[in-house]
Amino acid sequence: MYLGVDYYPEQWDIEMIESDLDTMLELGCNVIRIGEFAWHLMEKTEGAYDFSFFDHVIEKAKEKGLDVIFGTPTATMPAWLAKKYPETISEFENGQKRAFGGRHVYCFNSSIFWDYSEKIIRELVNHYKDEDAIVAWQIDNEFGHEGSDECYCKNCQDAFQTFLSKKFGGNIEQLNQTYGTAFWSQEYNEFDEIPTPMQTITTHNPSLRLDWERFRSESIVRYAKFQTDLIKEINGDAVVIHDFPGGGLTKHVDYSEIAKDLDVVAYNNYPVWGGQKEPIKPHEIAFGLDYIRGLKKQNFWITEAIMGAQGHDVTGYLPRPNQAKLWSYQGVARGCDSLMYFRYRGATKGAEQFCYGILDADNKKRRKFYEVQSFFADVKNHEDVLEAPMKSDVCIIYDYDSLASFRIQTQSILLQCEEEMKRLYKPFYDRNITVDVIPSSADFSDYKVVMIPVMIIQTKEFREKMEEYVKNGGRLVMTYRTAVKDQDNNLTLNEELPVGYTNLAGLYVCETESLQEEASLSLVGQGRYEGRQGKAGVFRDMIVATTAEILYSYGDTFYQEFAAVTKNKYYDGEVYYIGCAPEEEVVGTIIEEIIKEVSLTGIHSPDGVEVVERMNGEEKVRILMNHNESQVEFDRLILEPFQCMIQTVK
């Protein structure tokens, strides 16, 4: 288990390194993370490579017994490269070049930038290939973050046209037929006539836009794989990681595809940022951690955990005493087996002056220092069990194409895919049942419960796997806007919704509508749910049940004959279909029924008290986390505000 800090010695007088490293040892660190933003320091002029600064840093770290995670510096190109080759800089949708001076400003489809990336990485990794102190290489930094997943430059336009030509085997008529370009007279004679989907009157073809989303993702995935493969070519034993930012489900890149080539997935966990009134809710933090764990379905690292307030131009919310430490416990509870804090000391210069560290600019040890110290000391006592893999019986499946389809056509002013996932996630979280959040390419056959919220793109391959899963006794939860479109982002002629799932779900959707409020319609319980009522909104399907049992119907005047929530027996399994976005109480009732059916065992705890159990063979621990600002009693224990503890379970 690596426990440490993100350290930027180049931002300080190098004479401070001795005392800095001693302070890190006092904290309980065994690793430092360095180098990710230091390209110019390594290559001040083209081809003049100099790693002597980091030679010194690593030598000092070794003297103290500290290991090193080294980042390739490509996220921040040097000014001389931007000046010599302005075409390496990415462009906004309006065609304006991004200015040098921020970060992540390069174009993923610039062959020149690839060349210079290869040169610096090859020199760097060759220089340190025999350095045992380097325990991992981090490629770049936060791929796709802060809008860097989009570029509309000439490099990208040419590469997109090549991407399409390759996809359609050079057959432009096949593209025209697939896209339906006869609509609005959009037929193309040549691939070089195809535009990038920049701003136009009305909107671009939905099929074209989905392929653009796939192209954007492939561009970043290819660049990430290029870096990983290059490091492995030079040092086959290297451990390669990448530090993913939050919000992965909203990016124009499929992080699960990047993760396939990595040895370890890492995460930069920011539950609160400058401008937010307060942190995101505990179950939302947990969802983000479970999503990162699901990228490879294995434990992960946190490369940036916060301790102080965070913000670039706006100073952020200051985590309350023990609150940031709680988020660290939440991370290790949910599969993080190595953790570094961002950052060791807050900066005095540059854009991150308000990203406060364990130490502030005054360099004094205060509350934050001692919170980190106590956290490191505690988790070291449970290293074996916290490094053991996690096993969940429940999963939520997301699909990159479906997420992209909703970015292209939102269909509702309220519909947000991630929020619909969390709507189903929270009842399990409240009962302290862990959930894996996994991509549609992952194996889901061993889960007791599988949920596919708003998976609008349907494929024959996925549907057949799902039919087999349910047939063999699985529980499937579907929602509205699932299996509506084909792989080309088109509707399907002569097929009822959900396309291909009508027999499995025991229903068909007659009509649909988008709603303007979260609780704009009433739900009425049917059968054993008779007497129950609730609210729903966002969107709704008018469901006609064929073989399915109706659990809830709509209570409004015009659509009382239609079902809202159903349950269908299919061979040894069952399929729940939720045709709207119900309020929390209604969803909780449905999930509670499923939990009982599959004999899942949760842990009852007070509101705001999260409990996670971890096992390694016979060793078992229970991690208690009080997210409340007040004292809470649980299991004959008094938990102070934001208090955490790890109990050994006999």
| Global morphology | globular
**Largest sheet composition:** 11 strands, mixed
Mean pLDDT across the residues is 98
In oligomeric terms, what are we looking at?
A: single chain
| Structural class estimated from helices and strands | alpha/beta
End-to-end CA span: 24 Å
Query: How much strand content do the residues show?
Result: 15-25%
**What's the helical proportion of residues?**
25-40%
Q: Write down how many β-strands occur, each being a DSSP E stretch of 2 or more residues.
A: 24
Number of helices: 18
Low-confidence sequence ranges: none
> Radius of gyration from the CA trace?
26 Å
List the helices and strands and how they pair.
Elements lengths: L2 E4 L10 H11 L3 E4 L4 H4 L9 H12 L3 E5 L7 H6 L26 H18 L5 E5 L15 H14 L4 H8 L26 H29 L5 E5 L10 H5 L4 E6 L12 H13 L5 E7 L16 H11 L2 E7 L24 H14 L2 H5 L6 E5 L1 H9 L8 H14 L4 E5 L9 E4 L7 H12 L3 E5 L22 H4 L1 E8 L6 E5 L7 E13 L3 E6 L8 E8 L2 E6 L1 E3 L1 H14 L11 E8 L2 E8 L5 E3 L2 E3 L4 E5 L2
Parallel strand pairs: 1-2, 1-8, 2-3, 3-4, 4-5, 5-6, 6-7, 7-8, 9-10, 9-11, 11-12, 12-18
Antiparallel strand pairs: 13-15, 14-15, 14-16, 15-19, 16-17, 17-18, 20-21, 21-24, 22-23
Helix pairs in contact: 5-8, 8-14, 10-15, 11-12, 15-18
